[in-house]
């Protein structure tokens, strides 16, 4: 199946470079471009891409607000692309609904891998970024703060799914979870998909946040 991609960046040369890299792949088709966030949101609705490669800083409407509009009105997944390795952009992008975060100085191979990963329904964050997310949401709560009340949706999970969720929240990949539980990668992938469906979560990153917010994993003191 061909992956349909929309490129959103206010620099024409950047868009041209991304187009050359992605169009060279037999399974990827760049279906459109946008020079600002407002146009990106509009073309995402019109062109129905599978993936939007979205710059953070753009005129008229920035990439963060454009991402909110895209993820709320279409089925497209968004990869945030930026030259700035800043935590405020990272967490704002995730809160806006982005499924991945990639620096513009990443290799062409990383860009292609990112598009394929996001199109397959998985979240894409580098190990370093994943660690930041976990650190952000796993900071020990003050002693006087009550343990969070678990969401009722957790009752929908089987015992094995709950176990997988705990390991996902620790930042483990599917392969690492499979090795820990002595099962196959495909089995873990199936469990993760069911967890996301039952908990109405977009991706693994949301699952990490959900797990810590609902006491599935207790932050280390």
Task: Summarize it.
InterPro entries: CheY-like_superfamily, NreC/VraR/RcsB-like_REC, Sig_transdc_resp-reg_C-effctor, Sig_transdc_resp-reg_receiver, Tscrpt_reg_LuxR_C, WalR-like. Keywords: DNA-binding, Phosphoprotein, Transcription, Transcription regulation. The protein has helices spanning 12-23, 37-47, 63-73, 87-96, 108-119, 127-137, 159-169, 174-181, 185-199, 204-213; strands at residues 3-8, 28-34, 51-55, 77-82, 100-103.
Describe the structure.
The protein has 221 residues and is an alpha/beta fold. It has two domains: 129 residues, Rossmann fold; 62 residues, Winged helix-like DNA-binding domain superfamily/Winged helix DNA-binding domain (Arc Repressor Mutant, subunit A, Orthogonal Bundle). The protein is 50% helix and 13% strand. The chain is built from ten helices and five strands. Strands 2-1-3-4-5 form a five-stranded parallel beta sheet, with helices on both faces. Strand 4, helix 4 and strand 5 form a beta-alpha-beta unit. Helix 6 packs parallel to helix 10 and helix 7 packs across helix 10. The longest helix is centred in the last third of the chain and has 15 residues. The model has no long low-confidence stretch (mean pLDDT 85). One of its GO terms (biological process) is phosphorelay signal transduction system. Pfam families: GerE (PF00196), Response_reg (PF00072). Keywords: DNA-binding, Phosphoprotein, Transcription, Transcription regulation. This is LuxR family two component transcriptional regulator.
